């Protein structure tokens, strides 16, 4: 039987393993951590019984993934839950932009800019199911929906700051710019509008749901399916060289997929890696980091904006201009006084994460790559800015800075949870300039992490695409 080893049990590694096992390969997933899941784990970080997502928390790309959505993961316990409102971006004057699956609700929240919002996102939302099939593939491919992809591509090429000028008032501008900030990069550069367009269209199409019981439920369901189709997962097995895999069970695998960052590929493959590929992987750039703050709070957050009290996700950063300036500072290696902060109120959709009156609040700030300071107070101040009296609700706090995040998951180099800077070049050509982005140049060995197309997110498409590449070669 043809055998395969997948290194790393994040959603891409598991997706790759499932796809290979579906075709009859004997698949083993190796995970360095004692718990599988990579960025899709959930833990009691603050108080007993209070569940916090360790990294990934909201899943607009997971629920619409062209591969994950076909797997029937509900049979293995995965249940998507939606908050009353998907996303709110509050402003200092008490107003806020609202992202909802109900386009009319979003349009109404944006006042005079509502119809301009509908004109941009209405067509993208209607065509999203076909569009996502092309967006989640390498940039060089024969598109299945060329007209939809061309329309999206023309808008995605623009800087996010230019797109924000379509609207006259801050609720719409800030709502879009906050979504675009998931790029983790400067928002005045080409292609920086792409992430915002995709995340908002996904939100209108299918929302920003959470997994019942925590993001770990996604990993557990995928492992359940992998086991059903004959694969297995071994934890506590760090992989440092290809020779180590050749010795596994006394035989060399036919296929190896690496759900790792490019720098780990260089270490694992060593001299087997062609010089041109080694040089490209060493030139691969990593982006800004996050500083994660998990809080147990008494009751709810006292948001000034009433819609924010019903939202699963909050973007805190003020105006579009303020957000763009903070993101530019982070890219320059400077810690802004008011960083962009993402807040999760998953418990509103999923009360099982709470314990009595103690609710989990999930948050992180965008910080410079490798930032060594403590950004806890920056995060708390940003929340307090839009929710006066918040400090008095805090029962317990747990933090992870960039170094802690890299120790938790080696793919988060310098605290970069996107596994690679989203520069214009690396959005288009990651991890290197090639027509075969998953191939490493070593026979039978492929890269399948978020450092490959289509990039970050819990969608499994990097792993699926890499597995398809391996299967075609077989």
UniProtKB/TrEMBL annotation:
InterPro entries, per database record: FAD/NAD-bd_sf
A Pfam match: NAD_binding_8
Superkingdom field: Bacteria
UniProt-listed PANTHER family: DEHYDROGENASE-RELATED (PTHR10668:SF105), PHYTOENE DEHYDROGENASE (PTHR10668)
Protein name: NAD(P)/FAD-dependent oxidoreductase
Originating species: Nocardioides panacisoli
């Amino acid at each position: 039987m043809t055998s395969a080893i997948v290194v790393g049990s994040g959603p891409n590694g598991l997706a790759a393993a499932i796809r290979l096992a579906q075709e009859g390969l004997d698949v083993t997933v190796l995970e360095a951590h004692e718990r599988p899941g990579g960025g899709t784990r959930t833990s009691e970080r603050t108080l007993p019984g209070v569940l916090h997502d360790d990294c990934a928390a909201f899943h607009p790309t997971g629920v619409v993934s062209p591969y994950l959505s076909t797997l029937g993961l509900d049979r293995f316990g995965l249940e998507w839950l939606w908050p009353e409102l998907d996303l709110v971006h509050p402003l200092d004057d008490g107003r806020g932009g609202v992202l909802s699956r109900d386009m009319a609700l979003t349009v109404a929240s944006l006042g005079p800019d509502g119809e301009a919002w509908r004109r941009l996102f209405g067509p993208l939302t209607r065509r999203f199911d076909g569009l996502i099939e092309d967006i989640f593939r390498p940039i060089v491919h024969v598109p299945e929906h060329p007209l939809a992809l061309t329309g999206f591509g023309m808008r995605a090429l623009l800087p996010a700051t230019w797109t924000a000028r379509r609207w006259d008032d801050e609720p719409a501008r800030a709502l879009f710019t906050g979504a675009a900030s998931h790029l983790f990069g400067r928002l005045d550069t080409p292609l920086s509008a792409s992430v915002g367009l995709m995340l908002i269209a996904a939100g209108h199409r299918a929302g920003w749901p959470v997994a019942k019981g925590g993001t770990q439920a996604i990993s557990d369901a995928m492992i359940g399916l992998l086991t059903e189709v004959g694969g297995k997962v071994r934890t506590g097995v760090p992989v440092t060289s290809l020779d180590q895999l050749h010795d596994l069970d006394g035989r060399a695998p036919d296929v190896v997929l690496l759900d790792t960052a490019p720098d780990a590929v260089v270490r694992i493959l060593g001299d087997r890696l062609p010089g041109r590929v080694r040089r490209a992987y060493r030139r691969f750039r990593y982006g800004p980091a996050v500083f994660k703050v998990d809080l147990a709070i008494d009751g709810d957050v006292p948001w000034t904006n009433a819609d924010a009290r019903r939202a699963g996700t909050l973007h805190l950063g003020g105006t579009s201009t303020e957000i763009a300036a903070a993101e530019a500072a982070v890219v320059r290696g400077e810690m802004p006084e008011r960083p962009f902060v993402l807040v999760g109120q998953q418990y509103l959709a999923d009360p099982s994460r709470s314990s009595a009156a103690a609710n989990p609040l999930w948050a992180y700030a965008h910080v410079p790559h490798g930032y060594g300071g403590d950004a806890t107070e920056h995060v708390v101040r940003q929340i307090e800015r839009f929710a006066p009296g918040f400090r008095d609700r805090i029962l317990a706090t747990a933090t992870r800075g960039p170094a802690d995040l890299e120790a938790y998951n080696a793919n988060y180099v310098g605290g970069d949870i996107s596994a690679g800077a989203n520069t214009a070049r690396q959005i288009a050509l990651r991890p290197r300039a090639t027509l075969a982005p998953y191939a490493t140049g070593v026979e039978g060995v492929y890269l399948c992490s978020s450092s490959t197309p289509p990039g970050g997110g819990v969608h499994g498409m990097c792993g699926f695409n890499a597995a398809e590449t391996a299967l075609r070669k077989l």
